[in-house]
Amino acid sequence: MAIGLSDLTLFLTVAEQGSLSRAATSTHQAQPSVSARISGMERTLGVRLFERTTRGVVLTPAGKAFAPYARRCLEAADEGRLAAQASAETRRFVVLAPASIADGVFPDLVETLAHQPCQVVCRAAHSHEITRQLLDGVAHIGLVTTDSAPRGLALRPFSTSPIRWVAARHHPLRTRGAIRLADLTEQRLAVHTWGAEADQLATLLDRARVPRSHVSWVSPASVATTLARDFGHVAALAVDHVRAEFDAGSLKELPMQGLPHWNATVNIAYVTGTDTDPLIRAVLGHPH
């Protein structure tokens, strides 16, 4: 039995639904047919993809390992379909970024390419998926927080944004002067995991005796923004993620003292040698 795209779609539907019967209903198939197709995939692969229980089905370790590849195949097929349908005059330019920074970097990227003859496609992806899709030619550039590139990829800076502490405009700390980490022991904190330097902050919070139970490490950055704006948290995140809230006055910066000057840096990842591509060159040459 050859595994087709419809089989991969069915596999992911069963995994998402956690039930053969619910997957059958959502795909308008009979349950015995769904069960037979999943069993056929398992025979072809030589592994069990699901554990059958009285409450439904759950992915086995083999199923969990197979799932990201199934998604990747479906995404690649969809990209191929769209690329084939695109006219010769409209080039598709695929950009990937981790979900943790996507909302902060995609708008700037789209604006950079606004006057280029292309259709920009922005997608969130895990770091390892970004690497694979770049090397496979499925994507053109990736926006990443890492400062080291796997073999075959090059990195160039895209943007740098300082890390700031923010709170709602009526937060009690807004009436105080200079604030140190030791002053946050009674506060609920939301810290965006912006990069490796966030580990330094974790150490400093421990030294200041801020209870770990008071600190939420969150991603994407919009979660930290919402917690600060709507739920009274004090948040630490890159300025680029809260410019709209600063402009609206819903969030204000807190004057923290005694901390290093951290920055959230985003790099452009691209296949080595492709910087002659006019669109990639446009992104690399644009000041951020």
Report on this structure.
- With 288 residues, the protein is α/β, with parallel strands linked by helices.
- It folds into three domains: 5-69, Arc Repressor Mutant, subunit A (Orthogonal Bundle); 88-159 and 266-284, D-Maltodextrin-Binding Protein, domain 2 (3-Layer(aba) Sandwich); 162-262, Periplasmic binding protein-like II (D-Maltodextrin-Binding Protein, domain 2, 3-Layer(aba) Sandwich).
- 41% of the residues lie in helices and 23% in strands.
- It contains ten helices and eleven strands.
- The strands form two sheets. Strands 3, 4, 5, 6, 7, 8, 9, 10 and 11 form a nine-stranded mixed beta sheet that branches.
- Helix 7 (198-207) links the parallel strand 7 (189-192) and strand 8 (215-218).
- It is globular, with a radius of gyration of 23 Å.
- The mean pLDDT is 91.
Quick structural overview:
With 288 residues, the chain is α/β, with parallel strands linked by helices. It is built from 10 helices and 11 strands. The longest helix has 25 residues, at 61-85.
Judged by helices, strands and strand pairing, the structural class is: alpha/beta
**How large a portion of the residues is in β-strands, by DSSP E?**
15-25%
Which series of helices and strands comes N to C? Answer: HHHEEHEHEHEEEHEHEHEEH
Ends distance: 51 Å
In total, the number of domains comes to 3
Overall outline = globular
The number of helices is: 10
Number of strands: 11
The fourth-level CATH homologous superfamily of the largest domain is Periplasmic binding protein-like II
Q: Give me the Rg, rounded.
A: 23 Å
Uncertain segments are none
CATH architecture of the largest domain: 3-Layer(aba) Sandwich
What's the pLDDT, averaged over the residues?
Answer: 91
CATH class descriptor name of the largest domain = Alpha Beta
**CATH fold label of the largest domain:** D-Maltodextrin-Binding Protein, domain 2
Residue share in helices? 40-55%
